[in-house]
Write a structure and sequence with these properties.
Length: 415
């Protein structure tokens, strides 16, 4: 299926509010540098309500703020806010915060690459953790741009649609609380599979000064309406002081660094099974029904010998939870027996033994599976999976390997 359509109206609006990939938990740190406040083109903040109808109903507040340096879109919902600044320079900054959360990222283009610098502060298992990271991935296309409210909506919600004024059809007029508006429409068809397309019907009501009073997207599959997303202008006001402060912070690009490894290690040692050793340290996220974890421990466990090591439960198969709780009892009583036992368990698992966990203790001891998943997701984002090996260096930098890749793990452990 087309990912832009699937990730468009229904889930994307939720993801942007919660910023799923990053769910952050701290207030923004004080910025000690001096910078000039951002300059707006009109000094105005356009307040919209966004209503989602379909499989689920949702209504939230959105902002549109034109700046001399670019444009800003914001979503406010249940004491959480996500701000997106599309700069004229081609950079996109994202800032997300809740009552006790904070995350900021800067996206930019390099030659055949899209890069992101990010900083995140959160709480995992009651411990504060701050990570900074810089990553690039291959891309033949530069970052998208947006200069108007409708272009921002399409960009933020990941929706294909009209990309130039010529693709809009004038379809009449409408009366609004702000005067008469011209109605424009567009229909965009996106093939999903043979014989099935997604139909996106767009309608916007534009006032004489170019302000969009209403912007509506209707998503249909096979003649059936799946969802309708409608933005309606509610107010035009001056920018309040608290929003101005956010805009000033949002305008600052995140500098590319890689740090927070010692925080990761501290939390991992709190929730996992830890063993002393030399640097660099290795944190192995594992699942007892993961065949690649089994191969790693059966064939490559010597990679970790002599290193400071933490084993963290990452439950991707819910049925594996009882076995993990039994393994934790073994750690609590005789920690030195965990890795030898784990290798036997995985060997039996790979051999297809239905009772491969029978050698584990019959008692159950609690583990913090939620914290394990939260920590792994914080590190790897949407790429989270098992095995996940995080290598932490004494200076706080870190790297990670997702999947069964012993060569990459060995390289990381050599420093």
């Amino acid at each position: 299926m087309n990912p832009k359509v699937v990730a468009g109206i229904v889930p994307a609006i939720i993801a942007a509010v919660g910023v799923a990939v990053y769910l952050l938990q701290s207030q923004p740190p004080a910025n000690k540098t001096s910078t000039q406040p951002v300059q707006t083109t009109s000094g105005k903040l356009y307040v919209y309500t966004a209503r989602l109808e379909g499989g689920q109903a949702l209504e939230l507040l959105t902002y549109y703020i034109p700046l001399s340096s670019g444009t800003v879109y914001a979503q406010i919902y249940n004491n959480s806010a996500s701000y997106f600044m599309v700069k004229n320079t081609g950079i996109i900054n994202v800032l997300s915060q809740t009552l006790n959360s904070y995350q900021k990222a800067t996206y930019y283009s390099k030659l055949l690459q899209i890069c992101v610098n990010s900083t995140t502060t959160t709480t995992v298992a009651g411990e504060r953790i701050t990570l900074s990271n810089s990553q690039c991935q291959q891309s033949t296309s530069p970052l998208p741009t947006a200069k108007t409210f409708d272009e921002l909506v399409l960009l933020i919600q990941g929706l294909p649609g009209p990309t130039s004024p010529s693709q809009w059809k004038q379809s009449g007029t409408a009366q609004t609380p702000y005067g008469q508006a011209t109605v424009y429409t567009n229909t965009t068809e996106v093939p999903i599979m043979q014989g099935l397309s997604a139909i996106l019907d767009y309608e916007k009501q534009q006032l004489a000064d170019g302000t969009i009073y209403q912007f509506k997207v209707k998503l249909s599959y096979g003649g059936q309406v799946a969802a309708i997303l409608t933005y309606t202008l509610r107010n035009i006001t001056t920018i309040p002081a608290d929003v101005a402060n956010v805009l000033n912070e949002l305008s600052r690009d995140v500098v590319g660094t890689n740090g927070g490894g010692l925080d990761i290690l501290r939390v991992a040692e709190k929730i996992g099974m830890k063993y002393d050793g030399k640097w660099p340290a290795a944190i192995v996220f594992f699942d007892l029904q993961c065949p690649y974890c089994a191969q790693l421990f059966k064939y490559n466990y010597t990679l970790f010998e002599g290193h400071r090591l933490v084993l963290v439960d990452l439950i991707v198969h819910p049925d594996a939870l009882p076995a993990h709780e039994r393994l934790r009892c073994l750690y609590n009583s005789t920690p030195q027996e965990v890795i030898p036992t784990l290798r036997v368990v995985y060997d039996r698992f790979l051999a297809g033994d239905q009772n491969y966990t029978s050698i584990l203790p019959q008692s159950s001891c609690p583990i913090d599976a939620n914290a394990g998943m939260q920590l792994a997701t914080l590190i790897a984002g949407q790429n989270v999976g098992t095995p996940l090996v995080v290598v932490v260096y004494p200076n706080g930098t870190y790297t990670y390997v997702v999947g069964y890749d012993p060569a990459s793990i060995a390289k990381a452990l050599k420093g």
